[in-house]
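Worked problem 6 (solution included).
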Amino acid sequence: MKQNPEFLINEMTPHLHRGPDWLKAMRRSDRLGFNEAELPPRGIHLWRYTDPIRFMMDIDTATDADFTGALDAVVKAEAEHVKEGRLAALVTDRGGRDIDVQISPAGLPQGVIIGSLSDASESNFDLVKEHLYQMINRKSGKFEAMNGALWNDGIFIYVPDNVVIEKPVHLFREAGGENSATFPRLLVIVGRNAEVTLIDEYGGGSPDRNKGISFSNGAVELFGSEDSRTRYVSLQRYAPAMNSYFTHRAKLKQNATMLTIPLVFGGELCKQSFGVELAGAGADSKMYGLLFGSNRQHFDNHTLHHHSAGKSTSDIDFKVVLKDRALSAYTGLIRIDNKARTCEAYQENRNLLLNPGTRAETIPELEILNEDVSCSHGATLGPIDEESIFYLKSRGIERNEAVRMIVGGFVQSTFKLVPEDLKDRLSDFVATRLETI
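Solution. The predicted structure is:
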């Protein structure tokens, strides 16, 4: 398939000429990678359910991000939580053009850095250069190369060795309105025996596809050093006319642990990939995801646990709730290398279909290159059990309320893991989706 000229990234695109020389070279490399790569053909592996052309936009004609202020009320509430000491920091990112950091009155532990990637690429040259683009770059795919070439500014977080940030750090990324394109980027480095909790929230976008669709292409790289402990919550709640593509990659060294919680609610079309490499003995990764789709939303999610070191463990539990004519496709891969002996890996995908017309696809994949492992996977797909509804109705509960109670129980185990600041809002999301049942 020949590259369509209207989708080429022009060499004179302003993003390519910002930052130090090494960063300009990396942007230029990803620009060439994007322009040279063909669109993934429909029907191959991870593109069998989603048309890649829907994530393309004419870069030269995309409008500047017009921020509607949709996040203002939430940001204001979270700013109060910072003042009260319930959050360690609050970072707002409006399309990579305006990044603001608010710190708790108690301050941050010595050596912690929370700020923009542009500043960090100058003031922490060696640290950023060593890690940025290491896991997500032109070799990762065409759309990853697009982000690498076009991100305007991003967020940088560094937690030094033996430092614990006791309260969560909350990141807000607001996309632009109709016909806009944004490219959020995040780099996180967690030192030896360090600990941090991150809430990475994405909102905004076009509210009406008749006025124009908005686009978002995000990338997150997280590095967990020896004995580090990282909790990362991704909350996607884009406006209804958003097409979003998102890539997350993490690398864990010896005895490092990571809890990843993908929460997916918004957008018209959403394709996400969450991956963790367990690169040290004793490394442990857990992913507990939750997706709630309605109307004609289209979700395509991938998870990857790559065991490149022995004596590492992983667990995935990805839950999906669909109503109306929503579609979800989930592909989960467990890869265990030949030299990665004595590993344990588990994967489960459960899909709850609330009415006829919804569609869920689940594809568990195992790529195990040695026999000294304990590995299993499972998937369920179907409507709510009618016997459960009958049981609740027999106790005077109306059917609609019975369905809400069952769905609430289905998602409760994931909600328990979410930081307190998000629990009420997530409950509201689910309650709103269930109102029309």
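Discussion: The helical segments are 21-36, 72-83, 117-123, 125-131, 142-150, 386-393, 399-415, 420-434.
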